[in-house]
User: Fold this.
Amino acid sequence: MPATLDPLEPHEIPAEYDLAGLRAFVEQTRLADGAELANSQKMFVELCVVLGVPEPGYKRAGQDNAYCFEEDVKADQAHRRIDVYCRGHFVFEAKQGVSPRGPVDAVGRAAKARSGHSKRATGAGLRGSAAVVGGDAGGAHPGRQLCIVG
Assistant:
């Protein structure tokens, strides 16, 4: 998460949450660099623990999976997966930004100057950039964890 976000005020955090645990979670997850596929499930499980809510169960083939990782979604001929699916409550789709590794002064060299899952200049958002902090990373991956609640 960008360090420029305003910290939550004490009245914005429910009393039953462990503030020190939440802060430790945020600091630990800041260390994640790229590797969305490798980090997203671990990060989501740790978030469930720190919030004191159940984590997704094991996905079972051919069964009703009301709360699981990687739920299958078929739209027309496309076959995709939702990172975390909780029927009737939310879907969670993880997107990992990239961190700068030195001067990024030309689009042709931008991919080599970044770390993360996307090496193309149009891929993941550059962490700490105005576009990512402002919510417009440009490209396919906005560089933040996204949770859609419905």
Summary: The beta strands are 67-75, 78-86, 90-94, 99-100, 114-115, 145-149. DSSP finds four helices and six strands in the chain. The two ends are 23 Å apart (CA to CA). Residues 136-150 have pLDDT under 50 and may be disordered.
